[in-house]
């Protein structure tokens, strides 16, 4: 009995399934390739940070050795100078005493020679020489001897060296420095703003009690990081950022009650595609700052709306206004945003615009007289 014949599969269906399998394999390969790149980046970060840490440790301890050697040499010179000063000060009286004794010895020798000559002379000369010798000897105090100090009264220099300093230094050296596998803080988020970037960071070590944070940044083409913020906040907006330029950011922390800073976080790359805010230049009745980001109305009769030079804000962005000074109030004074630039209006109290007064309150739209919420 012949078995039932199975229907042949549809060729187009097979081709479709084959293409889908190929696409899935290609996508899988791409995903694996990206993960390999991620592994390579992680490996590179470990090796580069380990190499940098070795260099920092070697440099630091070489500097310590050089500084300690210099301090020890300076202390040695100071102690040797102190020994020299004591020696010179206390040896001078002994030198004076020695000169006095040597002078007495010389005088006594001369007197002995003269006495011997007087005794050995002739009878006539003998009486005269003996008389002269006796007269001369009577004027010399042969019983007066200079006092020589006892050894117990003479300085005996010595050095007092406390070997416990070696134990103290040893304990300090053995506890000096630590190696951390990761910094206690990391950059959490970079948010672009017109002409700036908001940097947010967080603590990743629960056992680390942070007192202050220190944020630095640099252009990707620069070799030098600059301090931009030191304080207790965990976010900061870095201004004066050039658009479409990559910047690196890093942050570290200082523990509560400590002076030294923690290791730096892993540098994060960020950039802003938004150009800095500038007011339109040349508008009658307004003066602009050098960076054109501050406008001052200098004519009470000035009319019309001062617009930004370009549309620098987009949906979803947080917009912050700040009024520095307020002069004579005017009902038209307001600040806000609009969809498009329209000439002929003396305020933003119109359709497709949101504005607030200088007191911070929403301004009613002239079109529908309803409050406009920010």
UniProtKB/TrEMBL annotation:
Membrane-crossing segments per the record: none
Question: So what family is this one in?
Answer: Belongs to the cytokine receptor-like factor 3 family.
The UniProt keywords, alphabetically, are: Coiled coil, Cytoplasm
Q: What is its main location?
A: cytoplasm
Q: Which PROSITE patterns match?
A: FN3 (PS50853)
Q: Which taxonomic lineage is given here?
A: Eukaryota, Metazoa, Chordata, Craniata, Vertebrata
Record-given protein name: Cytokine receptor-like factor 3
Q: Which residues form the signal peptide?
A: none
Q: Which domain of life is it from?
A: Eukaryota
Record-annotated Fibronectin type-III domain positions: 183-276
């Amino acid at each position: 009995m012949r078995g039932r014949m199975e229907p042949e599969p549809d060729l187009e269906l097979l081709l479709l399934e084959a293409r889908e399998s190929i696409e899935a394999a290609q996508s899988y390969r791409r995903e694996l390739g990206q993960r390999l790149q991620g592994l390579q980046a992680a490996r590179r970060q470990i090796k580069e940070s380990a190499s940098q840490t070795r260099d920092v440790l070697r440099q630091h301890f070489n500097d310590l050795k050089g500084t300690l050697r210099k301090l020890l040499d300076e202390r040695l010179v100071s102690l040797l100078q102190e020994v020299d000063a004591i020696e010179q000060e206390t040896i001078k009286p002994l030198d004076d005493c020695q000169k006095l004794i040597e002078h007495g010895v010389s005088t006594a020798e001369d007197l002995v020679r003269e006495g011997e000559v007087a005794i050995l002379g002739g009878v006539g000369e003998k009486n005269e020489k003996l008389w002269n010798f006796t007269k001369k000897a009577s004027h010399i105090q042969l019983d007066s001897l200079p006092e020589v100090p006892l050894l117990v009264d003479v300085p005996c220099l010595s050095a007092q060296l406390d070997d416990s300093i070696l134990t103290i230094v040893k304990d300090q050296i053995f506890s000096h420095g630590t190696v951390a596998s990761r910094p206690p803080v990391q950059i959490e988020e970079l948010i672009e703003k017109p002409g700036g970037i908001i940097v947010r960071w967080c603590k990743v070590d629960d056992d680390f009690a942070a007192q202050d944070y220190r944020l630095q940044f640099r252009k990707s083409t620069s070799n030098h990081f600059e301090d931009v913020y030191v304080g207790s906040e965990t976010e900061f907006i870095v201004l004066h950022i050039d658009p479409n330029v990559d910047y690196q950011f890093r942050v570290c922390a200082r523990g509560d009650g400590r002076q030294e800073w923690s290791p730096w976080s892993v540098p994060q790359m960020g950039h802003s595609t938004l150009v800095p805010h500038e007011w339109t230049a040349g508008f009658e009745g307004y003066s602009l700052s050098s960076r054109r980001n501050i406008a001052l109305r200098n004519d009470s009769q000035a009319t019309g709306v001062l617009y930004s030079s370009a549309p620098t804000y987009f949906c979803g962005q947080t917009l912050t206004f700040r009024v520095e000074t307020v002069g004579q109030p005017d009902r038209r004074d307001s600040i806000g945003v609009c969809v498009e630039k329209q000439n002929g209006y003396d305020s933003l109290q119109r359709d497709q615009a949101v504005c607030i007064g200088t007191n911070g309150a929403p301004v009613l739209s002239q079109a529908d007289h309803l409050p406009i919420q920010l």
